[in-house]
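Run ZBT10 protein through structure prediction, thanks.
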Amino acid sequence: MNKLKCPHCNYVAKYRRTLKRHLLIHTGVRSFSCDICGKLFTRREHVKRHSLV
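Sure, done. The structure for ZBT10 protein is below.
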């Protein structure tokens, strides 16, 4: 299995979907928002964790 390298940093992923998720860090795209405060996140699970606090 080939290792997939991030073109922006030293991150190496085993799967294409993992690299795709990682690349959101570099693009600044934040598609998920908190319904209460409006804070934006790159991943839905980050919104869920934020909501627990």
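The chain has a mean pLDDT of 95.
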